[in-house]
Write a structure and sequence with these properties.
The protein has eleven helices and three strands. By secondary structure, it is mainly alpha-helical. It folds into two domains: about 5-145, Ribonuclease iii, N-terminal Endonuclease Domain, Chain A; about 155-220, Double Stranded RNA Binding Domain (2-Layer Sandwich). A three-stranded antiparallel sheet has the order 1-2-3.
């Protein structure tokens, strides 16, 4: 379906949306001097602002820390990938499929990026109210359903360490793979004792996995 018909966008600036879905690999290959990255930067701010406002009004008794943690669940990469897939935004993506650096991990990251760049384009073209209505229609339902996209096991481990007055640290054990397709292995230490090992596509992801193992061993629930 046509992008503009699908999302009810009446525009005279279709090029703006071409930019919103243009990855740098495509622009380099076709010698175009722009890509979606600036719009992604803008869309990231719009998403954070509108979700923050919605949470602020929805949960009037939540303190700042709880609101921040809750917001992170709905603006994290996992959430953006989910939104993008649900809206079939990948159908409009322009990228160089022959680029050797476009690994599976990179394509997932791009899928998240284009949700934000599309939002940024909508904001410039249609204004903040249209962007809010878009998020209200397609994204706020996940907040109302309390859908979990990301559990911050590292923060939970830090809270555990602070409460129990024990030292929590992470050590990289190994890394494998090509520069753009690495797998990392991290261990988590609690007062010098190994409490878990995790792997991931980044050090942070591996640390989260290790923290999850440690919390399960310690029988600490994460909500």
């Amino acid at each position: 379906m046509n992008l503009f018909e699908k999302f009810g966008i009446d525009t005279t600036n279709k090029q703006l949306y071409d930019i919103a879905f243009m990855h740098s690999s495509y622009s380099v290959k076709h010698e175009i001097d722009y890509n979606y990255e600036r719009l992604e930067f803008l869309g990231d701010s719009i998403l954070s602002l509108v979700v923050s406002e919605y949470l602020f009004k929805k949960y009037p008794h939540y303190e700042e820390g709880k609101l921040t943690k809750l917001r992170s669940n709905y603006v994290c990469q996992n959430a953006l990938i989910y939104y993008s897939h649900e809206l079939d935004l990948k159908d409009y993506l322009k990228l160089d499929t022959e680029d050797p650096y476009l690994t599976e991990n990179e394509v997932l990251s791009i899928t998240a990026d284009i949700f934000e760049s599309f939002l940024g384009a909508m904001f410039i073209d249609q204004g903040i109210q249209f962007a809010k209505e878009f998020l209200k229609k397609y994204i706020f339902k996940y907040i109302d359903e309390e859908k979990v996209f990301f559990r911050d096991y590292k923060s939970a481990m830090k809270e555990y360490g602070d409460a129990q007055e024990v030292d929590v640290s992470y050590v990289m054990l190994n890394e494998f793979g090509h520069p753009h397709e690495k797998t990392f292995f991290m261990s988590i230490m609690v007062d010098g004792e190994v409490m878990g090992v995790g792997k991931g596509r980044s050090k942070k992801e591996a640390e989260q996995a290790a923290a999850k193992v440690a919390l399960e061993k310690l029988e600490v629930a994460v909500f």
